[in-house]
Here is the input.
Amino acid sequence: MKLTSEKIKNLSIVTVVGARPQFVKASAVSRLIDSKPNVDEFIIHTGQHYDHNMSGLFFEELGIRKPDVNLGIESKRHGDQTGRMLSAIECHLIDQKPDWVLVYGDTNSTLAGALAASKLNIPVAHVEAGLRSFNRKMPEEVNRVVTDHLSDLMFAPTIAAVENLRREGRAMEHVINVGDVMYDVALRVAGKAAHQSDILTLNNLRRGTYVLGTVHRAENTDDRSRLEAIVNGVSKAAEHVEIVLPLHPRTRERMRQHGLSLSSNVRIIDPVGYLDMTSLLISASSVFTDSGGVQKEAYFHGVPCLTLRDETEWGELVSLGWNTLLPPVHEDEIAEAIGSIKRPQMSDSKPLVYGNGNTSSLILEHLMTMAAR
Ligand code: UD1
Ligand code: UDP
Here is the structure.
């Protein structure tokens, strides 16, 4: 039986977030929850990301309520960071006794939230379930697999994600293809970014004349030879095309540790908020990245993308021709590829593979329905 939200009184959700992409994803659902008088949300921020431009700015710009608690865990080794989160989240869950714990994506904050809840027999709902790179060396892959196997409700963003969960033997009645919650956010924010962001003017950038880049993934930054190939490849590409690089703090730190530096031709800026990022992306001629989120946002905004990784969880974009994969091993290959990112030949009516922009409504509807069973 499908119950409507009116039939359910006071559904309570604890949302666990901690890293930049989770603030973006949670903004869609948390804003919707705020508009529902019969749904209570308690937001736990683990403090995994803590610089203002990696955290607080996203709450302000995306209109998310301030977290009810910030655990302030900050940067640590994986076990230490995840363990401290687990312990602290557990205390809050014991106090809150929610109907659901809602987690997003694949970070250590995701894993800690899912693990703390499942140990207390509190149902876990995972947004962005079923994504797989099939590379267990990625910390995110371990987090995703474990989180999905602890989850009572798996919100998959794509058909491929549903199939991954089916192959892993997850109960299909707990897997729902709701589309991608980042698409909701991209649709909502695009117009606002165009009006409110002055990042192009501030940096003297003209539409369509520059390539935007982001690099932060552990496998690209912790490994000196890969980071060196990227740093040198990007520097060489910048001899021919203008490159704007909002530099993730991890990458800045690893470059310092490895004694690597980018050419002064590369326009390095601090990480930007979501409005500035959207504005930079929409006006870029192309983007290179190793981010999960940016690969999809490039597609949402019609910007061709080069992904500096060995594999991607978002394979449908590669099949579509919108995204090209390049393992970042040789600097000359990287420079050449950045200089020649092409818009794919395709019809105007792009196939919509990430839902209809109503993913957050579907998520909330299912949380209400399932809690009422
Ligand atoms: C984390 C996630 C990754 C996600 C990324 C989004 C894990 C295992 N990794 O990676 O999946 O794609 O967030 O950006 O959960 N730092 C700061 N200030 C901050 C945050 C981080 O200076 O506010 C620096 C510190 O030097 C820190 C490093 O960045 O050691 C890495 O931070 P961490 O949260 O461990 O991992 P990310 O690389 O950000
Ligand atoms: N982003 C941002 N400012 C930046 C870089 C990225 O707002 O300087 C946004 C980006 O548009 C996307 C999200 O952060 O919405 C992706 O986060 P990140 O690349 O850190 O993580 P991933 O998606 O790889 O997990």
Q: What stands out?
A: The CA atoms of residues 106 and 143 lie 5 Å apart. The longest helix spans residues 78-96. DSSP finds 16 helices and 13 strands in the chain. The two ends are 8 Å apart (CA to CA).
